[in-house]
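User: My collaborator and I are trying to settle a disagreement about how two of our proteins should look. Neither of us wants to argue from intuition anymore, so we agreed to look at predicted structures for both before our next call. Could you fold the first one, then the second, and keep them clearly separated?

Assistant: That sounds like a sensible way to settle it. I'll keep them separate. The first protein:
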Amino acid sequence: MSRVGSSSKYIYSGDLSIDLEVLDLKKLIVPSAPSFTLQATVVNHSNIPAYNFASIAYSENTTPIYTLSDQSIIYPADTSIVVLDHAFYADDKNNAQDFCLEIIEANGLSDIDLSNNLFCEASYATFKMLNLFPNPAEDVLNLELYAPENLENNSIAIYNVKGQIKATFSRSLHQGINTISYNIEHLTPGQYILKVFNADTPLLEETFNKASRSY
């Protein structure tokens, strides 16, 4: 077996082999239902079409939740977007920090390279702050937060340790990971509390420090 070119396509001499790679994994919310499905982007590094591939969905503690089968056909060197035919519900998520998908076989053959067929996507049952950086920050503060659904009418407020509002701004949130940047040059050095609201409902709260400008 050997690799050729930057696309990492395989050329085989001898027995046929299967090598599928999961490039991406997204959670698709089912409209008007408390459930979601998994959408995977899969590339076929094999020299034969791959079909009827079996996969395992994991929660963050790597405990298998479901074994799934899919009838999609992915041709050699092709990339395909596949929506797995299974609805996951709130109990399945169990507030897991990661939701993972691993392809284990196709065409009845085991995958020969297990290093590239597992992919995890942050998928939270509730709103969660993933990152607040840099901390301390001098001029721009960046937020990465996960929203389980699309939301309008959101506000982000910054309080000092006395509970006084020092800044407020609005942002729309989409389902998935949101990245927000805000200029905090006007704040005096010290500790602050950042709160995220939808209308009057609090969603998240995190502390950060405003640093003195370095020259």
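The second protein, kept apart from the first:
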Amino acid sequence: MDTKKKKFLALKTWQFDQFSGDMEATVQKILQEDPLLQHNFQQVRLGVNTPKQTFVPDTLYDTGSSRKVLSYHFDFSDNEFLHTARISPMDSKLLFAVPHSLQHIFREKWKQVSITHGITGLIDYIIREYAPEKESRVFVNVRQQEMTVILLEAGKIRFQNTYAYDSPEDFTYFILAVYQEFGLDPGEVKLSFMGELEKDAKIYQMVFQYVRNIDFMKRPSGFTYSYKLSFLPDHYFYSLFAIAG
């Protein structure tokens, strides 16, 4: 990204199953050998989509008990590093764990790398862009076998959670559960998709049977995008672009 022009210049993805060895070895190999990553970047920001994350209201946050809080929800080992991200729109902190080995690999490559959770930029952007509307809306960010559901209601985040799913039935259930729990009308309250999903996908077709007001997110505003990215649907890699905001 060209930070002066606020323009995204390039984007590249890697499929880990194309490499032999464990995740750390694969990441290290990519960082060392990929030509795109050999440039001298002025700033590097890393968004980690770890399931080991929980929100704590600012009024209840205590630095000394952060590890205990995260350990209450997840198996948090000594081989993981605790990070805290400030989520200003929610008046809360996000606690999340990153494996020491993985963090070391990135710090070795870029000493000043900024590490945050992949959800932070997404929440900030949703609040900034959609809170003024005051209407309820459900957002779903889709990744391979994983989905994050966010409910925006009356200009505030009422709900956020990440789920692993194995089938269209799982995917649909998690969305409808949010509609039911918060008394949302699936015929009226808009559902906005972002991430790795297409209209012809089975999971989309199943959700559309129950939720009729669906759209796909446009790319985050406030930036420009290289023509080299024009082949990508606007809703792809949404959380990645949002981190830059």
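Some points you might bring to the call about the second protein. The mean pLDDT is 90. The longest helix spans residues 168-181.
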